[in-house]
Structure formats: structure tokens, C-alpha cells
Design brief:
Number of strands: 11
Helix content: 10-25%
Order of helices and strands: EEEHEEEEHEEHEHE
Distance between the termini: 33 Å
Largest sheet: 9 strands, antiparallel
Radius of gyration: 16 Å
CATH architecture: Roll
CATH topology: Pnp Oxidase, Chain A
Number of domains: 1
Number of helices: 4
Structural class: alpha+beta
Shape: globular
């Protein structure tokens, strides 16, 4: 699926180019490209994970993090929550999020613009994929079931066993109208 979401995010973009995250010298991050991680394998981990941590910021700037179920689909991370939940309110006020996999010592973190998905066809498609992945769709959930999409602007990944050599960053460009400067810490 090619095109753009309502927020102007590219869908179905080409494979991003890896580079190294910017971290203090003491971390020993490799300077060359030897050992960078493979994007398709990172996407595979994003797709296979069962639980994800989503971090947002409250309107007053205080952080908020919660585990969620989700899907990696066509270059976006999708998760559901009640529209009136703290996550939902935070995204409405400040539409950015950080997503981190919950599994093991191999790290995948994405930062990007977040938006509530209102397209009925996409909502229905993700609902069916949730049913397949988790054995439960959205229909049995009470309240204001909202679907959110995080369009990554930067993704970090590494293996704990060889962190300085495998630490990799992908810059995926603008997310929405504001460019988030990739952090390394």
C-alpha cells in the first residue's frame, strides 16, 4: 500500500539506510558500518513481538508509559486503547510517542508521530489482524475503542551481547509537520 495518511506520513516507503546512533564516546559505538543490523530483521522483531511499551508525554510534560498489544504493519506501529485513556489524551495533546519492545536483551525502539486512526477500512483491517495475533479483536472491548498509529521517524536497535558493534539507527524522515531530532540516549 503506497500513499500518505491524513497526517502526511509516507506509507510503503523504501528500505531505510542504517547509520550509527549518537552517544557519548564512552559507549564505544562503532564508527564504521560493520555490524549494523539488518532492517528486515528489525521489522520482523517488531511484527513478532507480543507486548510493546508505549511512552507518551502528559500535557504538563510528565512522562507516561504503559504496555500494550500492537501490530507492525506497512511501516507503522498500531495499537489500541480507549480514546479517553491517558495515552489517548496525551497523543491528542502532543502527538508523539516512543515504542519499545518488551522482549529480551535485543533492543528495538522507535520514536515518531502518533495519530488516532479514523479510517474505518484500516480500523477493520487492524481489528482482524489483532484477532489473528491475539485471539481477540476490538468488538468485545467496552468503551471508546481507539486505534492509534505511530509513524517512526527514528528507530534504534542493537543486540546486548555486542552492543557497541550492533548499535544501529535508521532515520526515516519527517513525521507530521515537526521534525523530531533523534536522540541517542
Amino acid at each position: 500500500m503506497k500513499g500518505k495518511t491524513k497526517a502526511g506520513h509516507d506509507v510503503g516507503a523504501s528500505k531505510p539506510k542504517p547509520d550509527r546512533p549518537t552517544m557519548p564516546q564512552g559507549y564505544g559505538i562503532a564508527k564504521d558500518s560493520k555490524g549494523v543490523l539488518d532492517w528486515p530483521k528489525v521489522e520482523q522483531r517488531l511484527g513478532k513481538a507480543r507486548n510493546y511499551w508505549v511512552a507518551t508525554a502528559r500535557p504538563d510534560g510528565r512522562p507516561h508509559a504503559m504496555p500494550v498489544w500492537g501490530l507492525w504493519l506497512e511501516g507503522r506501529f498500531y495499537f489500541s486503547s480507549d480514546g479517553g485513556s491517558r495515552k489517548g489524551k496525551n497523543i491528542a495533546a502532543m502527538p508523539y510517542a516512543v515504542v519499545h519492545l518488551e522482549s529480551g536483551d535485543d533492543v528495538v525502539i522507535l520514536e515518531g508521530a502518533a495519530e488516532r486512526v479514523r479510517e474505518k477500512e484500516l480500523f477493520s483491517r487492524v481489528d482482524k489482524l489483532y484477532q489473528r495475533k491475539y485471539g481477540m479483536g476490538f468488538s468485545g472491548i467496552p468503551g471508546d475503542v481507539a486505534l492509534f498509529a505511530v509513524a517512526p521517524q527514528v528507530v534504534f536497535a542493537w543486540r546486548e551481547k555486542d552492543f557497541p558493534k550492533s548499535a544501529t539507527r535508521w532515520r526515516l524522515g519527517k513525521s507530521g509537520d515537526r521534525v523530531i531530532e533523534p536522540s541517542g540516549d
